[in-house]
Specification:
single chain, 394 residues, mainly alpha, Growth Hormone, Chain: A
Length: 394
């Protein structure tokens, strides 16, 4: 078999498994606040908590799986995460109170964090090292497509068939994810006892991969900035009377990502990470500036293209940087470290931004997010972009 072959059976299967996991996540998060408000007459803050507590559970899941995946086994960890998620999804049908819903959302987040860390670790092992950027970029498309289709389908089902049907769809998808994951063949890694011993301790290095921390820190601020689009774009669109066009934003975003991803992935492998990351962050900052000045529908869609190219190029590149920096026996920790930091920014960003909107207004908010991204370029240079950099010691 060609050692540089990318589109193997295992690459396809793990990408499809990951797609189903993220599809469920995005389908539910798009309409769980509406469900909470309608069923339990919850306030906006409590509805937001029902969405956000999933992220907190996800962080716990990533902490556990990143520390334990090499000791337990990558495929066993994937099975455990999917079965845990399946139980949580089935529990949605038994929701009778808001506290119970919050508990189930938290548990679902744990299962999702475990399973998605396992898929990210497995695919890192499947991708040939010389095609790391390209392969990670294609794999990340499974998340991108899920983020575009999931919310659209969730809202459509909720409007036409009722929210219970969303739970039915999620149950079917998680079962499909479990069934196809059986076909994944995980390459065996020779990991000795000396390499496994650190994962049994409670030092910070048992939960985080130090070599992945620089790019992970950069990702916090990108996740925070992007959360301003995920959480508040529709509210902004209502204010500027572009709700119909805003519904197409993430579709255009996904198309832009699909078109640019093959090019940026190959560029990453041939020319290096900086050739992709610096332009991606600049384009993303321009996208935020365009959003802040939107007056017409076509301008909003132009911003979707810019955000799709910028954010859609940065995240898989950053993930590839994190994995490449780590030893092979700590790929799981590197994957979980990167996603924990990115999820932290995206998960807690709406809470922070919620305080800024009354002070800044939406237009100034998106200008501020552009400034955050530009400032992050300097942070990237200091922590990662320079050829000679110090690894953060834990």
């Amino acid at each position: 078999m060609d050692a540089t072959k990318l589109w193997t059976k295992d690459f396809w299967v793990v990408s499809l498994t990951n797609f189903f996991l993220y599809f469920i996540h995005y389908l539910l998060i798009a309409c769980i606040t509406v469900f909470t408000a309608e069923k339990f007459h919850a306030s906006a803050s409590m509805s937001g908590l029902a969405a956000g507590i999933f992220i907190i559970g996800m962080l716990f899941g990533r902490l556990y799986s990143g520390k334990s995946i090499e000791r337990i086994g990558r495929k066993k960890m994937l099975y455990f995460g999917i079965v845990f998620s399946l139980i949580a999804v089935l529990l949605y049908f038994a929701v009778t109170s808001l506290p119970l819903l919050l508990l189930i959302r938290f548990l679902h987040g744990i299962g999702f964090g475990i399973a998605s860390t396992a898929t990210g670790t497995i695919v890192a092992n499947v991708i040939p090292n010389e095609r790391r950027g390209e392969g990670t970029g294609y794999y990340a498309l499974s998340t991108t497509i899920a983020s575009a289709i999931g919310p659209f389908l969730g809202i459509y089902i909720n409007q036409h068939y009722g929210f219970q049907m969303n739970f039915v769809i999620c149950a079917v998808l998680i079962v499909m994810s479990l069934l196809i994951s059986v076909w994944i063949s995980v390459p065996k890694e020779t990991i000795n006892q000396a390499q496994l011993n650190p994962t049994k301790s409670f030092k910070l290095s048992s939960f985080f991969e130090p070599k992945a921390l620089p790019i992970s820190i950069v990702s916090i601020f990108i996740g925070l900035a992007y959360s301003s689009i995920l959480s508040f774009l529709n509210t902004y669109a209502q204010q500027i009377h572009l709700v119909d066009v805003a519904s197409l934003f993430f579709i255009v975003y996904a198309i832009a990502t699909l078109v640019s991803r093959p090019f940026t992935g190959r560029l990453f492998d041939k020319k290096g990470e900086n050739v992709v990351v610096y332009p991606a962050l600049i384009i993303l900052a321009i996208g935020f500036l365009v959003i802040s000045q939107v007056h017409h529908g076509y301008t909003l869609l132009i911003s979707a293209v810019l955000v799709g190219v910028g954010y859609g190029s940065f995240i898989p590149s950053a993930q590839a940087i994190a994995v490449k920096a780590a030893p092979r026996d700590r790929m799981g920790l590197a994957t979980s470290t990167f996603f924990m930091f990115a999820d932290f920014g995206a998960g807690f960003g709406p809470f922070i931004i919620g305080f800024l909107i009354p002070v800044l207004g939406f237009k100034n908010l998106y200008i501020a997010m552009a400034i955050v991204v530009l400032a992050d370029i300097a942070i990237y240079y200091l922590l990662q972009g320079r050829k000679k950099r110090k690894v953060i010691a834990l």
